[in-house]
Amino acid sequence: MGVLDGKVAIVTGSNRGIGRGIARGFAREGARLALAARDAALLDDAADEFRSLGASVVAIPTDVTDEAAVDALIEQTLEQLGQLDVLVNNAGIAEHAPIVDMTLDAWQRTVDVNLTGPFLCARAALRVMAAAGRGRIINVASISSQRVRPGSASYSATKFGLWGLTQVIALEGRDHGVSCSCLNPGNTWVERRTGTQRREDEEPMMTVDELATAAVTMAAMPDHVNMLEATVLPVGQPFIGRG
Q1: pLDDT digits (tens, 9 = 90+) for 146-191
Q2: Which of 100, 117, 231, 234 lies at a 20 to 30 A Cα distance from 210?
Q3: CATH classification code of 8-188+200-232
Q4: DSSP codes joined into one string, the chain
Q5: pLDDT tens sequence across 94-120
């Protein structure tokens, strides 16, 4: 028996990195999954992995910045899995550059994926969950929603915005039995780091599976309880007092 038995969850950006780790954690705990991401081949690979764990999985290629595609994601999830209990808004990108060098296109791409995407997904999910009288939305932000670093203008701004969006969803959803949480990961070892040589002075890292335990805990809360915010990071990572 898993703590998510009987629940249906959508995880965006679930074909790699943190999203795949969260989806893997959900699969191990008995959730039925709708996987959403743009790269269909990687999405199918993730679906095969989770099916090998015994999970019921559907892969739905989705661009979260496309309103029609997001609405279709929700509709197909309901058609194929019958319900929607949890939405994990994980899809995101990072465009790093000093403000004076950042292009408008780079800024807009980050806003579209990191903020507009979660808004579209949450809006569509909230309509379904409110009608059902229950549901949970988990937004994956970052410690950059609280502490910034140089060169992170678009990324940090959107993650700060995602924390604000989380609070509004929680406020507007609570009368309908819908909760909303914000998960703020610190340094996490993901595929884009694979093949790079670790330096002795590099900040500590955690694995996606270690981070996923927090998302599972959030998703497994009783319907009347919400973990509004959680910051998860390696013990040795600079965070408090960092600039």
Answers
A1: 888 889 999 999 999 999 999 999 999 999 999 999 999 999 988 6
A2: 117
A3: 3.40.50.720
A4: --TTTT-EEEEETTTSHHHHHHHHHHHHTT-EEEEEES-HHHHHHHHHHHHHTT--EEEEE--TT-HHHHHHHHHHHHHHHS---EEEE-------B-GGG--HHHHHHHHIIIIIHHHHHHHHHHHHHHHHT-EEEEEE--GGGTS--TTBHHHHHHHHHHHHHHHHHHHHHGGGTEEEEEEEE-SEE-GGGTTSPPPTTSPP-EEHHHHHHHHHHHHTS-TT----EEEE--TTS--TT--
A5: 999 999 999 999 999 999 999 999 999
